[in-house]
Write a structure and sequence with these properties.
By secondary structure, the chain is an alpha+beta fold. The chain has ten helices and nine strands. The two termini are about 30 Å apart.
């Protein structure tokens, strides 16, 4: 426990990582509302390393705890899944992906004969593949195997990290079932589709155009493939800039970095099994 906070803001030192370089920083305005929002009392009462409250491009509150500071990079965990999904939308717009109804094996021939190879990008994006994947974090489940193959660098990395997951529970497109491996597959698809690493594509399409002020980092496996399901590390203010971009449906200063329709689709249930109150973790 005494090492936990330091580990969570230094994942890119504990594991292999690739830099996501920033460009010219986009300035953020400030309007201190910490007192009105009771921010200091909230930070004192909760075990949070950082708190950023923004309205538009204006910072209302910025606080750090447990010796963290503005230059620290904070681990995304599953927020990286949203970044991968947004980059899929950019790749569609770029013509690198023709349709989200394409199968993963069209980009990753190594997955032919595997259930995930025969799964469409649509069902990977909505975690509706119907493939069995246990994610209970008990050290013996499928997510633990995925972590060992990616972060733990067991095996060659890349497509090998998702091999052997070949039990079908139900037909694709029937039920939402949270499974990190589905975004891991998407990350591999994206890299094959655009011919660049995820870090390079993120830097080119989002990180630099949105005006990030610091380099981010993305964890990589033994083969140099980014961990699509987690592992993006960034400063709090740059997470804020990304949030601001998504809140504006992918637009910034009149420029559409992510297609607006794609951002809206990401927050709209396209099928009954994805609706609020119906889609559950299991």
């Amino acid at each position: 426990d005494r090492c936990l906070v330091g580990a969570l803001s230094n994942y890119d030192k504990l594991y292999g990582a690739r830099s996501v370089p920033h460009g010219a920083a986009r300035a953020l305005k400030r309007d201190d509302r910490a007192a009105a929002l009771n921010a200091d009392a909230w930070m004192a009462a909760n075990r949070n390393t950082g708190l950023l409250v923004m309205k538009g491009d204006r910072i209302l509150v910025e606080r750090y705890n447990y010796d963290r500071k503005e230059s620290d990079r904070f681990q995304s965990f599953s927020m990286a899944k949203t970044v991968v999904a947004m980059l899929i939308g950019v790749a569609l717009n770029d013509g690198k992906v023709k349709s989200i109804d394409q199968k993963a094996e069209e980009f990753l021939p190594e997955l032919k004969g595997q259930l995930y190879g025969a799964t469409s990008l649509r069902h990977l994006l909505t975690m509706s593949s119907g493939v069995a994947f246990r994610e209970d974090y008990d050290g013996k489940d499928d997510i633990s195997v995925l972590a060992r193959k990616t972060l733990g660098r067991q095996g060659p990395g890349g497509a090998d990290t998702v091999m052997g997951i070949n039990t079908r529970l139900r037909p694709a497109g029937e039920k939402f079932y949270y499974a990190s491996v589905e975004t891991q597959v998407l990350g591999l698809v994206l890299r094959a589709a655009v011919g660049k690493t995820l870090a390079e594509y993120l830097a080119e399409k989002i990180w630099q155009p949105m005006g990030a002020e610091a380099d981010a980092t993305w964890l990589i496996d033994a083969g140099g493939y980014e961990t699509g399901y987690m592992g993006l590390n960034a400063t709090l203010r740059d997470w804020g800039r990304l949030g601001m971009l998504l809140a504006n449906y992918g637009a910034l200063d009149g420029r559409q970095l992510i297609p607006a329709a794609w951002v809206k689709a990401a927050t709209t249930a396209e099928a009954p099994h994805l609706r609020v109150g119906v889609a559950t973790r299991r």
